[in-house]
Design a protein that fits this description.
The chain is mainly alpha-helical and 128 residues long. It contains five helices and no strands. Helix 3 packs antiparallel against helix 4.
């Protein structure tokens, strides 16, 4: 009987940590998506977004080290690719077509953050 209690406790801890990890990932990717959409809106209005984007990107790099232990690298690379490209565009001259490209790249980063959650959430489709 003691073994059964110990085994069930271990299963409960594993399940609980998995659920907590999923909740944290969902909250983080939702927040990242909202930040990228807000930056995209601000960039579309002609505001300077380079400082905010750099701050978000530095946070992303810190979280990416933690996320890399549990999430497939190609999913992380997709978000990072769009964020790096957007950061590069913020350093270019302030022309209308570059600003439009920046807006689109920030929206792509937002979509990639949402896709990151969709690809990593626990579901039968992702398990198989």
């Amino acid at each position: 009987m003691k073994r059964m209690v110990i085994l069930l406790s271990l299963v409960g801890v594993i399940l609980g940590s998995g659920v907590a990890s999923q909740v944290w990932l969902h909250n983080y990717t939702l927040e990242l998506k909202q930040q990228m959409e807000q930056l995209s809106y601000s960039a579309g209005l002609g505001e300077e977004v380079q400082t905010e984007l750099r701050a978000i990107y530095s946070d992303w790099e810190a979280y990416q080290k933690r996320l890399g232990a549990t999430i497939r690298e190609e999913n992380l690379n997709e978000v990072e690719k769009h964020m790096k490209r957007a950061e590069l565009l913020t350093r270019m001259t302030d022309q209308q077509e570059i600003r439009q490209e920046l807006v689109m790249e920030l929206m792509e980063a937002a979509d990639a953050a949402e896709e990151l959650w969709q690809k990593e959430k626990i579901s039968l489709q992702n398990i198989l």
